Amino acid sequence: MAYLVKACKDDLKTLATELGLEIGEMMRVIDFKNLILTSKDYDEQFTKTLLETIIETRVQAERDEKEENDYKRKQEGLILELERMKLSMTATSTNTSATAAEKINI
Q1: Of 89, 67, 68, which is closest to residue 81 (Cα–Cα)?
Q2: Which burial class, exposed, middle or buried, applies to 47 when counting CB atoms under 10 A from its CB (0-12, 13-18, 19+)?
Q3: What is the pLDDT confidence band of residue 54, given thresholds at 50, 70 and 90?
Q4: Per-residue confidence at 64, pLDDT binned at 50, 70, 90?
Q5: Count of Cβ atoms closer than 10 Å to residue 55 Cβ
């Protein structure tokens, strides 16, 4: 039962759903805990293992999402840097052409 203390509301809601329990929209953490513990088919070891799997899956999904967001941010930064370099090269090329034209006119 102590293993339920560490779980967040969404994890307990998922656990209750996986166990086939009826859940209400306004249920609180304590309501989910009581529902799970008083279930007629309650098996502590099975429930504990299932909850650990649910938590691991959620944490991995959060980690994957963070990595994807970091990758996208880095990619966007590289694209911006490339655009700045292109603009810089264009400006340098324009200045060089203008300087060459001035020398020819002199």
Answers
A1: 89
A2: buried
A3: very high
A4: very high
A5: 18
